[in-house]
Amino acid sequence: MLKRVLDIKLTNLNMEDRSDSFKGGNEDLSVAFKMQLGEVAQFNNQSIFAMNIRIQLAVSSDDIASNTFAKEKNIEKLDMLTFLKADFKVGFETDENEFNKDELKNELANYVEPYFREFIDNIYNRTEVSVPSLPIGIILGSIEA
After folding, report:
1. What is the DSSP letter of 47?
2. What is the enclosing helix (H) or strand (E) of 92?
3. Cα–Cα distance measured from residue 110 to residue 5, given in angstroms and rounded to the nearest whole number
4. Per-residue pLDDT tens digits for 11-44
5. CA separation for the pair 47, 3 (Å, rounded)
6. What contacts 39, CB < 8 A, 6 or more positions away?
7. Residue 52 CA to chain centroid, in angstroms?
8. Is the pLDDT of residue 101 over 60?
9. Which domains does the chain have, with CATH numbers?
10. What is the pTM of this model?
């Protein structure tokens, strides 16, 4: 179904280092991740499409498992060490114009996961905030359509 990813463009980035106001101590930190997939938009009458994707990452001493993170209405108000929100526009090509949108979203998420993990690792490696590398599969388990 998905033939190839054409491009991934960062359209918005918000990263907050809250280490100065962080109330947690040196105990274990929780990492929560969420990816939201937008609607599929088609260009011309070809099999070229685009989708907006938002990724969010929170690191906190609070126990914020991914399912809690997804349900939390005011995630920005939690006591967090750091918070990241990034919006991307992903262009891609499919083998055909007719497809199952849910299957396509999951397939696309599988393709872009390594890019997003690398993106987050690179950003945090350039800061004073120590965030562990994201495990493989964390993104696929956090998709919201």
Report:
1. T
2. strand 80-94
3. 11
4. 999 987 766 656 656 566 777 777 888 888 887 7
5. 9
6. 51, 52
7. 11
8. yes
9. 2-135 (3.10.420.10)
10. 0.78
